[in-house]
Amino acid sequence: MTSPHPGHAAAVPVLALGETLLVTLQGDLHDRTAEQLQQDVTHRIVRSGAAGVVIDISGVDVVDSFLGRVLAEIAESARLLAAHTVVVGMRPAVAITLVELGLTLPGLTTALDVEQGMELLTRSRPAAADRRGRGT
Amino acid sequence: MPVSGPPVATSLPVGSDADLAWVRQRIRQTAAGLGFGLVQQTKLVTAASELARNTLVHGGGGHVEITPVTRDTTRGLRLSFVDSGPGIRDVELALTDGHTSGGGLGLGLSGARRLVHEFELDTGPGRGTTVTVVAWTADVPAARSGE
Amino acid sequence: MSEQEAVESAAREVGAFLERRREQIAQRWADAPLFRAVFTVSRDEAVEACKAVLDALSEVASAGRLEDVAAPGFDRVRDQLGRMAGSRTRTGSSPAQIADEVAALRAPTAELLRAEPSDATAAEAAETMLALTVLMGTLRLVVMQTALSSGEALIARQRQQLLEVATPVISLWEGVVAVPLIGTLDSARSQVVMESLLESVVDRRARYAILDITGVPTVDSLVAQHLMKTVAAARLMGAECIVSGIRPAIAQTIVHLGIDLGTVLTRASLADALAYALSQQGIEVSPRAGGR
């Protein structure tokens, strides 16, 4: 399927798969990279007319309140642009830590892996497809 | 119980968000080397990330001291986040969930406190802030288990 | 020479003696029960182990810290002594017996010290012998300490293993895992339950995780707290956690305590929870036509 981009730690690959954007986060994210990503994703949604965003965090070993907030904000701004966001692949240790930290991210849709995330988006797709004209 | 540590403290600067990433990485390595389990490592590194960001955002930068410690047979890691910023006026308020002065979710101090075994806050208006936390490799240090 | 100086000089003398006669003492110690019983396979290893202990003692003595169990010199052999004590403990020796075996190392050492050619006065020789005795007493304490703590470590390890054995995660169906909990849930156990359930969610790609508490006698607010944390963590990972088997008495307690399990999906029994998980995946279980 997707191969993780080599090289720059600062670059977060955003891949368009049909009507879905696949964002793969890897390793330790700098705060600035995370903020940059937030902008990139919203721009890509607008440009491509994507109906869904899957953010794969299976390669992330620490999610603190900052990154947690960034994820929640990406989902929220995507929602305003009529795209649904699914965060997938959170590791058990990260999930346990976030709960202990007090960050349960109730507004966020989650799935076990990219495949199940895609499936989840497809199931809620028909309504979204009707809504959207074939725009730019 | 006496807490003694070999004199191998490491001091790292906290002055940019690149420093935060480096601090997380070093603490992860040190904790893994001391025998912390994966969940405990993750908790400690996350707490460190919250506290280092506090040092950076509210304290205007500073440094963190990383010191391996032992108590009886239990090994642990002590982290001190030191800044000479404006300090915290209302400590109790700063430790309340949801309180924020930096635009975050307000979970920095209170959340980090729940992720470690020991937490100490030394601050006052105008005299900077030092947050010291300790995490042990075993969840219940042998000295305290009383079941 | 003041008394203080005499003690310090005797300590240095012992340190130098241990270094000078390292080989001879090590050869004698290797035959003592403590080392012989641990290093049953290779005598050379026993001798090496003896030398490591001797080096530590020599360093402690030369630093003038004869009575200090926390002297840095001991740190180098603490691990080794711990392993030796642990090995003796496992074969059934009590810490007191181990301590006796350490005490038995003093006599052969003292014998060699007495045989040393020396131009020291009788008083100086006596002081040196006393210093050696004190040092060996300190070693006995250090070993005692490590023997006790290796016993504790053994207990802690067994406790951990017991916890893991007591919480098996089972696959009920493709994509459905369950942990039947039996007995009291304390915080260490809840932690293990949470971690193993979430690990299996990843390993088996399970979208549904069932915590069955039929066998749990009481649920207090702390246990409820753990249940809710597990549910929240599973949700963050993209799985749904169902708590089943809440008996009527426990349901009443939960209401009485004012615990809000509102965010937790509950079912009366494990079977009901499984039926829910299956129906959510579009699987329906019904009697076969013509079946009994």
Summarize the structure.
Chain A: Pfam families: STAS. The complex is a heterotrimer of chains A (136), B (147) and C (292). Chain A is of the alpha/beta class and 136 residues long.
What does this structure look like?
The complex is a heterotrimer of chains A (136), B (147) and C (292). A five-stranded mixed beta sheet of chain A has the order 1-2-3-4-5. Chain A has one domain (14-128): STAS domain (Transcription Regulator spoIIAA). Chain A is of the alpha/beta class and 136 residues long. In chain A, α1 (31-48) packs parallel to α2. In chain A, β1 and β2 (20-26) form a beta hairpin. Chain A has helices at residues 31-48, 65-80, 92-101, 114-123, 125-131; strands at 14-17, 20-26, 52-59, 84-88, 109-111. Chain B has a single domain (10-136), classed as 2-Layer Sandwich (Heat Shock Protein 90). The longest helix of chain B is centred in the first third of the chain and has 20 residues, at 38-57. Chain B is globular. The two termini of chain B are 19 Å apart. Chain C has 292 residues and is an alpha/beta fold. Chain C has two domains: 3-158, Globin-like, CATH 1.10.490.10; 170-280, STAS domain (Transcription Regulator spoIIAA). Chain C is 65% helix and 9% strand. Chain C has helices at residues 3-20, 22-29, 33-38, 43-62, 72-90, 95-103, 106-115, 122-165, 187-203, 221-237, 248-257, 270-280, and strands at 170-173, 176-182, 208-215, 240-244, 265-267. Chain C has a five-stranded mixed beta sheet with strand order 1-2-3-4-5, sandwiched between helices. The radius of gyration of chain C is 31 Å and the shape is elongated. Chains in contact: A-B, A-C, B-C. The A-B interface holds A 28-32, 61-66, 68-69, 91-94, 96-98, 100-103 and B 17-18, 20-21, 24-25, 28, 38-39, 41-43, 45-46, 49-50, 53, 97, 104-105, 107-108, 110-112, 114-115.
